[in-house]
Amino acid sequence: MIIMNKTLYLSIAVVSVVLGLMVAFQFRSAGRVDSGVPFDRVQLLTTELRQIEKENDTLATEASDLEAKLSKAEKGSPEAFQAVQDELVKVRQAAGLTSMQGPGVEVTIAPIKKGDSAGDNLFTVRDEDLLRVVNELRAAGAEALSINGQRIISTSEIRLAGAFIDVNLTRLSPPYVVSAIGPAGQLESSLLIQGGLVDTMQEWGIAVTVVKKDKIIVPAYSRSINLEYAKPHKEAR
């Protein structure tokens, strides 16, 4: 009985020693972990972590702003496209490549008949007569012009070709009808002013009538435009 008690006490003592060693080892391990990172270093890492978190927040805000700007740009692209389209329409109109309509005047020009034969005409209508009318109308504010349906643009030629007049390489014969879109009253008065162009042409034996209209239609230039020598000029910066 005494031997059994001694054995029991010895076993308890051994277990206690082992448990004590294990607890001591745990404390030492924890102490090593804690002492492995100095307190100053912990503070530094904490500060850096907070700085990184702050920078991440800033980047997230910038990314959100960029996404908003991108979304706005995508929404704005149709508007930009429409602006380009509108500008292209204006350029085509100014170049004479678009049919136009509006108020203006219609000027009919023809030689005055003196008899039945062609030789009885004192004067025939010449290319310079049409040029004078066109220039007078332009100076008075005409925005679109045509002669017998031929649109007048910057490269249009008006020249005499025998008994005919060529406009845009198209042979025209009298009567010549000049259609002009612009301020009708101003266009009319510029031609009918006393001692002006119409009076002079009538003295030369050319009949000229000027009619104001609420709606004049001027067709688009129908031929191709080929510029062989003239090129866009890039201004030096």
TrEMBL record:
Which keywords does UniProt give here? Answer: Coiled coil, Membrane, Transmembrane, Transmembrane helix
Q: Which residues cross the membrane?
A: 7-27
Pfam hit, one: DUF881
Look up the coiled coil feature and give its residue ranges. 42-76
The yes or no answer to whether the keyword Transmembrane helix is present is yes
**InterPro entries to which the protein is assigned, alphabetical:** DUF881
Q: Of which family is this protein a member?
A: Belongs to the UPF0749 family.
Q: What is this protein called?
A: Division initiation protein
